[in-house]
Design brief:
Layout: H1 3-10, H2 12-21, H3 26-33, E1 41-42, H4 43-57, E2 64-65, H5 67-81, E3 101-102, H6 103-108, H7 112-117, E4 124-125, H8 127-132
Antiparallel strand pairs: 1-4, 2-3
Length: about 130
């Protein structure tokens, strides 16, 4: 599977998040998210990855991402991105639209494109489902 081609388009937000965690290539981000090494991405793996990213973004460790923390995360992602993945929209995970993002909101969020790619409803993206997202 050509992860270097698939990941920049499929996991733009996740890669932007990965850049917040550390400077990573798409392959490194995939490897980090695919905790069991099966070359599939279970939604639980994506959520576990998002939990670790949340902990890095939540500067004051309040369990809530506030406007200043969100702005800092978006700026950091933009600086590291250098023409890479699309803008990081942390507010997409703000389920109740209160302008604050709780840890639960952030961690449980799965991008609509990934949800629709899960054609068999098993809450995992197989290699064929990943390829279809190109």
């Amino acid at each position: 599977m050509e992860k270097h081609l698939i990941l920049p388009t499929v996991f733009a937000a996740s890669l932007a998040l990965a850049s917040l965690a550390s400077a990573q290539t798409p392959r490194q981000a995939m490897k980090q998210m695919d905790a069991n090494g099966d070359r599939m991405l279970q939604f639980s793996e994506i959520q576990n990855f998002r939990a670790s990213v949340f902990d890095r973004i939540d500067i004051n460790a309040s369990g809530i991402l506030e406007a200043n923390e969100i702005a800092a995360a978006q700026q950091q992602a933009a600086e590291r991105r250098r023409g890479g993945p699309a803008d990081l929209d942390l507010y997409a995970s703000d389920k109740n639209r209160d302008g604050l993002i709780s840890r639960d909101e952030f961690v449980s969020y799965i991008a609509p494109r990934l949800l629709s790619a899960d054609r068999n409803g098993d809450r995992a993206l197989s290699r064929s489902e990943l390829r279809a997202l190109r």
